[in-house]
Design brief:
It contains 2 helices and no strands. It is mostly helical. It has one domain. About 0% of the residues are buried.
């Protein structure tokens, strides 16, 4: 059953009940937006922190690859493949977190 439309009071405004309901709805919407914004900011911080960790891990992988390549030059091709696979794994993790 449809509810009748609110009838403005003689003073020209909406009845107090409707005004309270509207205020409550506005507060609920604003609260939801605040929660969503906080969640987005937390997600940005999570992805940024994870990206920084992955960058440092990639730098370490590259350093170990270079050192091992100097020690065993004929293994450089395999070392590069392993280091690249590790870097791709880190990228996959970042993509998974960023898209979730």
């Amino acid at each position: 059953m449809k509810r009748p439309l609110p009838v403005p009071s003689r003073a020209g405004g909406l009845p107090a009940r409707v005004n309270r309901q509207a205020s409550g709805e506005v507060a609920r919407i604003e609260g939801g937006l605040t929660v969503a914004l906080a969640a987005d900011r937390a997600r940005v911080r999570r992805v940024a922190g994870l990206t920084e960790d992955a960058l440092m891990a990639t730098a370490r992988l590259s350093a170990v690859e270079a050192l091992a390549g100097q020690i065993v030059p004929h293994a450089q091709g395999r070392l590069k493949l392993i280091a690249d696979a590790g870097a791709v794994g880190l990228l996959t993790i970042i993509n998974d977190v960023a898209s979730s």
